[in-house]
Amino acid sequence: MPDIDWQEPFCGGGGNACLQLGQAPDGTLILRETVRPDELITTTPESLRNLVEAAKRGELDHLL
User: Fold this and answer.
1) DSSP β-ladder status, 5-6 and 10-11
2) Distance separating alpha carbons of residues 29 and 32, to the nearest angstrom
3) Taking the CB of residue 27, how many other CB atoms lie within 10 A of it?
């Protein structure tokens, strides 16, 4: 996907555990790990918002 506007990576507690979020010109959101930059997950703003809100409510805590 060309012309992706990538945000600075979000890295926790040091190391290489970093995620990066980008946006394509058509509004598609793209998520990738910085250690695997060619493996992309695409989503919509609404789907990402739903995921973030679920995480804020603690619904994903069992995965961590």
Assistant:
1) unpaired
2) 10
3) 8
Hey, is 27 helix, strand or coil? Answer: coil
Mean pLDDT, to the nearest integer, of 40-44?
A: 96
Q: Helix H segments across the chain?
A: 45-56
Structure tokens at 36: 């695997």
Please state, as a whole number, how many other Cβ atoms lie within 10 Å of the Cβ of residue 36.
Answer: 8
Mean pLDDT confidence for 34-43: 93
CB 11 within 8 A of CB 20: no
27-41 mean pLDDT:
93
Chain Cα centroid distance, residue 44: 11
Q: Which two tokens stand for residue 61?
A: 């805590």
Q: Please give the model's pTM, rounded to 2 decimal places.
A: 0.77
